[in-house]
Amino acid sequence: MASVINSAPKVTVFLCFLSCFSHFLSSPKGVLAQSSPDFACDVENNSTLGQFGFCNTSLETAARVADLVKRLTLEEKIGFLVNSAASVSRLGIPKYEWWSEALHGVSYVGPGTHFNSIVPGATSFPQVILTAASFNASLFEAIGKVVSTEARAMYNVGLAGLTFWSPNVNIFRDPRWGRGQETPGEDPLLSSKYASAYVRGLQQSDDGSPDRLKVAACCKHYTAYDLENWKGVDRLHFNAVVTKQDMDDTFQPPFKSCVIDGNVASVMCSFNQVNGKPACADPDLLSGIVRGEWKLNGYIVADCDSVDVFYNSQHYTKTPEEAAAKAILAGLDLDCGSFLGKHTEAAVKGGLVDESAVDKAVSNNFATLMRLGFFDGNPSKAIYGKLGPKDVCTSEHQEMAREAARQGIVLLKNSKGSLPLSPTAIKTLAVIGPNANVTKTMIGNYEGTPCKYTTPLQGLTALVTTTYLPGCSNVACGTAQIDEAKKIAAAADATVLIVGIDQSIEAEGRDRVSIQLPGQQPLLITEVAKASKGNVILVVMSGGGFDISFAKNDDKITSILWVGYPGEAGGAAIADVIFGFYNPTGRLPMTWYPQSYVDKVPMTNMNMRPDPATGYPGRTYRFYTGETVYTFGDGLSYTQFNHHLVQAPKSVSIPIEEGHSCHSSKCKSVDAVQESCQNLAFDIHLRVNNAGNMSGSHTVFLFSSPPSVHNSPQKHLLGFEKVFVTAKAEALVRFKVDVCKDLSIVDELGTRKVALGLHVLHVGSLKHSLNVRI
């Protein structure tokens, strides 16, 4: 049955959410008494620990680590190679659980974190794909800061660890991928900016010390991992065949940025094989690139349990001891799982790996714990020692979850006079659809218990009187309530249809086959739109995109919004946008393809670039040559923004040495090497004008179309800036372009080159030609 819900007082929509905790928050002593965790090097309670060098906080980290390692037996060391690290009571070291998650808030996934009556929930931000749609790097970092504050508060009362295996920075290569929702999307630059900013937010210590960590982040899943289970091909057996060119210009950049720009404390290697070698057993990928080229300051951890997988599922080695040895020798430091705990001792005794390699691995793990203050005793007197349950789910944190959702929501279609709706003109609003009154769907996966929920129906009902009908019993929508839905839409002043999917259709371990809305959802939408007497707003809740051509081309559907999985406050944010309390600013971080694309392109083909010989169309906006439903960067506003170029060079010269071969013969490109690149940069200045009547933020994208050499992208993102412009006003936006970093491309051998010739820079409809020469 449809239900009529009277609107709550209008003022409630503007209030910050209240914290869900009460009297006990102001009593840290009472709280700590309920949960008294053990701390390593707790000299106050056990003065004999003061004799150990590793407990001496005045020593350098390396000296403390060396002191600890030399005191351990081989068996004890092996206890520190696994996520459920063993205790060593003779040295006052309690057991430690490495596995905690914080993808978009402190999560209950992983054994390291728990919620209970002391901390019943934590702030649940939007799923990453929606936060990425904000294109706001300062927001990425701010969310990380809130999450790490709540994590530290929970650690202090024994409810969380200090090592969080987030973020997921894999490229959203294929629209069917069940975990695309966890990522920042399909673009390497956006993914890199998200990765380094979120990592900084999680890790940066408030005392300014570069060697201290607030919590330790982990960038995963390294590398070329983006398939769960598609048509019988699963992630545990998949061999990702990747060209050197695609590896270096698409799959690796976010990880490189994590390590170099974000100074991340950990990288997690993935289940899959890459070009025939398990990622967690490949010394070139681990020791060679992550630790060698990029200089990781931290530890490398295996996905759970990748070592077991490459032995038992991929049959990469003949014996388990050989598998343990190969992983450690490749550069793995920690195993999520028990495999290294069971088989490393036999590998050492069998001469397959030296104990010194085990020392090196546990030293990387211990150094990370040292930087976190784990070996500094009771943290109550340390920098984050005063944090407790009162610092989790604060009204400010909850308001930021709502703001993040608002910033990410993407307006894809808006016929004249459709949105925003007026809360005074709309007397009754029909709210229909399987995702209209959901709670858990809004927080996606790798979630924690949220502070509280505001469903879309609750958010809308806070503003106007609503009539609600789910329309389908679930998102699979085997049978839709068409007649009843038409009836309430015909009687309402406007209709909001809230559709999409949830973890039953896209999830870890579950890829899609179709990218159409499931079951009878399209029929429900079309029939309701036909019957509706007012504007019809289609709201799509999902991680991945859809072929919704039918709705895009239906004049009766006046507006379309994509809201990702918008987090605990998603319903309030959706209402804020629909009723114009917030001017939408989100832009799609991934391409929405037609169903014909997935019908003909196998998910297992890792090639980014098109192949005209076979008709393979390529992937993502950078290379895909076919039709799209919506493309990367699409998104509308309630106002009109115009761009004007103020300053940009017409040409730039790359200095090369006298005897360089390009002086005597025509070159298509030159190597992006340090000698030529030193201080080679220029500024682009733009004026952004808000020609409309509504103030709002605007994302300015700077794209480049390089010369067609080395199978270069047809277009790639050089930078983005978020700028707030009041109605009828303008703002100045500056981009600093580093020629070798930003304008370079990767050639077929994986070498970074600067293409010579005409580069076309794009900002909106504005184009500017730049000649790059020697």
From TrEMBL:
Main localisation: secreted
SUPFAM superfamilies in the record: (Trans)glycosidases (SSF51445), Beta-D-glucan exohydrolase, C-terminal domain (SSF52279)
Record-level GO BP terms: arabinan catabolic process; xylan catabolic process
Pfam families for the chain: Fn3-like, Glyco_hydro_3, Glyco_hydro_3_C
SMART domains registered for this protein in UniProt: Fn3_like
Any Gene Ontology CC annotation: apoplast
All residue ranges annotated as the Fibronectin type III-like domain in the record: 698-767
Name of protein: Fibronectin type III-like domain-containing protein
Organism, scientific name: Vitis rotundifolia (Muscadine grape)
Higher taxonomy: Eukaryota, Viridiplantae, Streptophyta, Embryophyta, Tracheophyta
